[in-house]
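User: Sequence recovery, please. Input:
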C-alpha cells in the first residue's frame, strides 16, 4: 500500500489516537496497530481496529473516565 498523501511506502507499526470526548474529556488510545508512511509519517488505521477503539472509548465514557490513556493491546 502507498501513502494517500505522498505515495511513500506504508509499513506496519503503531500509533496513538487522541480523542476529545467532550469539553473536558480527553482519552488517548496508545499503541494502536496501524500502517505508517516511511516518508511523511502519516498513519492509516484499518476499519476493524477503529471499531474496536470506538468500543473501548464507549466503555471508558460509560465508566465515567474523563482523562486517561488506554493501551490498545490490553484493553481490546
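Assistant: Recovered sequence (76 residues):
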Amino acid at each position: 500500500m502507498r501513502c494517500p498523501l505522498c505515495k511513500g511506502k506504508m509499513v506496519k507499526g503503531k500509533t496513538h489516537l487522541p480523542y476529545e470526548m467532550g469539553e473536558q474529556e480527553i482519552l488517548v488510545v496508545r499503541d494502536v496497530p496501524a500502517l505508517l508512511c516511511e516518508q511523511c509519517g502519516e498513519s492509516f488505521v484499518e476499519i476493524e481496529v477503529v471499531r474496536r477503539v470506538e468500543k473501548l472509548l464507549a466503555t471508558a465514557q460509560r465508566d465515567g473516565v474523563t482523562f486517561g490513556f488506554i493501551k490498545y493491546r490490553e484493553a481490546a
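The beta strands are 10-22, 25-37, 43-44, 67-71.
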